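Hello,

Our lab assistant flagged a job as stuck in the queue for most of the afternoon. It eventually completed. Since we weren't sure the result was trustworthy after the delay, we are filing this so someone can double-check. Below is the sequence as submitted and the structure that was eventually returned. Let us know if re-running is recommended.
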Amino acid sequence: MGDMSHGRTRWLVASTLGLAVGIPGGLALGAPLEVIVGAMLVTPLMLGLSGLLLGGSQWLALKDRMPGVVRWIGLTALGFAVGFTVAVVLVEQGGERLTGEPMRLATAGTFGLAASLVVMGVVGGSTLGLAQSLAVRGVEGAMRTWTVASATGLTVGFLVGMGLATAAGGMGTAPGLVLFLLSSGAVYAGLTGRALQRIVPAGAASR
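-- returned structure --
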């Protein structure tokens, strides 16, 4: 019981910090990356870097049970980049079609922001979970379980984070943004932590 509790705590800390640091970390490199690769490739590369930071942080909690470090981190980076790139396109294109104006999260109203975060959580979280589940073999239902857990964790996390950030002055403020990132990561980590015990038991991970 002690080992299980310790494992959940490590996952909670690693995933919370991985998401909270990974998202702004990837975004911060957007400007220099755009100079190198151009505007078309900058979004997936930024998001891939965010996923790389998240996957690396999560692996610190998984390394005793999942020695395949390159596989887990690489799949996390790939899933994050693909899923959230698609989600961003859907949000921007869908928002523009509905409103007739370019859709931007920074300027969206409460309803628009909440709807956008749901799309980001469902699409990005599902793709991320699907990609990560490929690192696990021999566990029945792992793909379905982890995909649903990841999508649910990010969707609920983003909405809880939005609510807390709004109460703290909005996501456009430094305290609001920090609260959004940390609370989103904590909810995601908490909701995926239960599924983790089923899909990554000792010895079930790929080598």
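-- support follow-up --
The delay was a queue issue, not a problem with the job. The result is valid. Residues 44 and 196 are 27 Å apart (CA to CA). Helices lie at 2-28, 30-37, 39-62, 69-99, 110-133, 142-167, 174-199.
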